[in-house]
Amino acid sequence: MRLERLRIDGLRCLADVRIELDPAINVFVGANGAGKTSLLEALFLLSHARSFRSGARDALTQRGATQLSIFAEFGLDEGRVRRLGLGRSGGRWEARVDGASVGLAELVQSCAVVCFEPGSHALIAGAAEERRRYLDWGVFHVEHDFLALWRRYQRALKQRNSLLRSEAAADDTLFEPWEQEMSQAAHSIDALRADYLSALRPRLAVGMQGLLPELGAVDLRYRRGWPDEQALAQQLREQRRRDFARGHTTLGAHRADWSIAFEHAPLREHLSRGQEKLAALACMLAQAEVYAVNQGHWPLVCLDDLASELDLAHQAALVAQLVKADAQLLLTGTELPAALQDLSSRVFHVEQGQMTRLL
Fold it and tell me: H helices within the chain, ranges in order?
């Protein structure tokens, strides 16, 4: 699966972008603020239905524009083509796959993009929500049952939270059906997450050894969101009074988290910002490898501002690994990264939201 054509209108400073991509390496060069990151953001939106930039929802649409649209054409095996579209007018998103209107989940399921960018260190040092998103995106793409389970769980969680904030909070019989539903879905979600992490661990260990050998062996630790001693339904019953005081549910699959610990850096506070970035990069690569094993091809790999995020040795090693894996790459920088000097690539110059092919 290769991205062949991309069209962007009204996303930040990108008003009328029309480009054709190389099946291997694509490089976007230009000054800071020219629009390079916004191009990668467009692809991330197609694959995640959200931006990788924090607080970006209200700033996505170009100033003065009333709508934005992203259209991508992917080449599949045997000459087949998949066309994906995402647009927003006002606050409403609309998604299309091969011309048919679909939900955002169906759009996300149709393509996979992994991205390493300046904020990626938040996967290691940030809030649990970022790590749950990473985990669930991976599970979503390899376990077909996950989406239905997650929707069941979210519906039950929403109903329980609504009861906690209502006058009916004293009626235990109203809670029991939703707590049972939450518990059943949560235990199934937990099992899928645990299976996914089992597939991720060995690839993550190899990646960390290559990027951060000085930190020793790595351990990936998973917390499912409630204690192991009892079923979630029983714990929710026992927790009602405390949850009522807080106005929300404090146990469950929506509270899951994971962390990495190194032999010589057991706490994440022991890591430098540079080490956090390299650890996040290893997580991204491990997830891409798991995806490739299950889907038969690598996800699209986006690397934002590569030269400023990694030193030359790590750049060269990363690019060599991705070229060997036959992944399609989109990279940005203020100039052509040194690690690409001897490789064939398609190069675009980006200036004030406009893109011109140079090579």
Answer: 36-48, 104-110, 122-125, 128-142, 146-164, 172-211, 232-246, 273-295, 306-309, 312-324
Task: Collect contacts of 307-315 with beta carbons under 8 A, ≥24 apart.
Answer: 307/333, 307/334, 307/335, 307/337, 307/338, 308/118, 308/333, 309/116, 309/117, 309/118, 309/277, 310/277, 310/278, 310/281, 312/338, 312/339, 314/211, 314/278, 315/339
CB neighbours of 99 closer than 8 A, spacing ≥ 6? 83
**CATH code for 127-294?**
1.20.1050.90
**Domain residue ranges in the chain:** 1-112+299-359, 127-294
Which residue has 């951060």 as its token pair? 212
What is the number of residues in the chain? 359
Whole-number Å distance between alpha carbons of 268 and 261: 7
- pLDDT at 64 (0 to 100): 78
Per DSSP bridges, beta strands 2-9 and 67-75 are antiparallel
Structural fold of domain 1-112+299-359:
Rossmann fold (3.40.50)
Q: From the CB of residue 197, how many other CB atoms can be counted at a distance below 10 Å?
A: 18
Token pair in block for residue 115: 């991205």
pTM beyond cutoff 0.90: yes
Interval 67-87 mean pLDDT: 95
Burial 263-291 (b: 16+ CB within 10 A, else e): eebeebeebeeebbbbbbbbbbbbbbbbb
Output DSSP code: residue 353. T
CB atoms < 10 A from the CB of 167, how many? 7
Segment 150-191, tens digit of pLDDT:
999 999 999 999 999 997 777 889 999 999 999 999 999 999
**C-alpha span between 354 and 38 (Å, rounded):** 12
